[in-house]
Specification:
By secondary structure, the protein is α/β, with parallel strands linked by helices. Helix content is 36%, strand content 20%.
Length: 275
């Protein structure tokens, strides 16, 4: 275990394998657990986690096979990654957590919420990838290439080593699986209070009309917000706006008629129910 600037880095044994995590020291209440995207470690989630760590314990794991965690014989699918995340919670003696996922981390968070809703206090879905807007695969690859251009250049030294370590073949296989996961559709049946945060410049997201349709059909405990200038990796590029939105939502001060969202964040307000 190593300690630096209010964070500890440690290894856990999960399903018989070594898993690398970063955990903040201090804070109280329900812990916040961050879930990274495909082919990448949790390192790029740290900007938002550091902001949120002022009030709560934050945990940023590298899921099995990613980053500094031990590799597996095969690439784990989304249900297996969700099971591994529950194993991480068990190893840390976390009975209930706020899950904050980005990209592929959103389907994983949704899977955990559906399989074990008692373990999820709240669910935050940042740029929930997957579904018809990312099909067929060549279209999704084009969207991904456009997003690379739109992301902060500061993310290159953070993400590139992870992508190279994960490998292009496994990355392509997992990305293809991700494009067929109906994230927005599953959001309609989320069993826990959920905040969906989209990037206004994210090419992997559906059209505004589709977002409004999903928001209209979603249950009352789903809140939708837009970080207008962000692309896909909102957690890295806009940590202050995202963290402020999450904190306001956790405090019950985001989404109501009289609530004022943080600077750069816009709420998606639509009538609920059938058209």
């Amino acid at each position: 275990m190593t300690t630096e600037h209010g964070w500890v880095t440690e290894r856990l044994r999960v399903e018989g394998r070594s898993v690398h995590i970063r955990r903040s020291v201090g804070g109280s209440g329900v812990p916040v657990v961050h879930i990274h995207g495909f082919a990448i470690s949790g390192a790029y989630l740290m900007p938002t986690a550091r902001v949120l760590a002022g009030r709560r314990v934050n945990v940023v794991p590298d899921l099995p096979g990613y980053g500094r965690s031990e590799r597996r014989e095969r690439v784990l699918d989304i249900p297996a990654l969700a099971a591994a995340l529950l194993g991480i919670l068990d190893a840390l003696d976390i009975d209930q957590a706020v899950l904050v996922g980005n990209s592929m981390g959103c389907p994983i968070g949704l899977e955990v919420a559906h399989v074990a809703p008692e373990r999820v206090d709240r669910l935050v879905l940042v740029s929930p990838a997957g579904g018809v807007q990312n099909q067929p695969l060549p279209r999704a690859l084009g969207q991904l290439a456009l997003d690379v251009v739109r992301e902060s250049r500061r993310m290159v030294p953070v993400a590139l080593p992870d992508y190279l370590r994960f490998g292009p073949v496994d990355g392509l296989r997992l990305f293809h699986q991700l494009t067929h996961f109906p994230s927005l559709e599953r959001l309609l049946h989320t069993p826990v209070p959920t905040l969906a945060v989209l990037g206004g410049r994210d090419p992997l997201m559906p059209t505004p009309s589709r977002v409004r349709e999903v928001a209209r059909l979603a249950p009352e405990h789903v809140t939708v917000a837009l970080v207008e200038e962000a692309a896909h990796a909102v957690n890295f590029s806009h940590p202050a706006a995202l963290a402020q939105a999450i904190e306001a939502w956790l405090d019950g001060a985001l989404g109501g008629d009289g609530d004022r969202p943080p600077v750069g964040v816009r709420m998606v307000h639509v009538p609920r129910g059938p058209a």
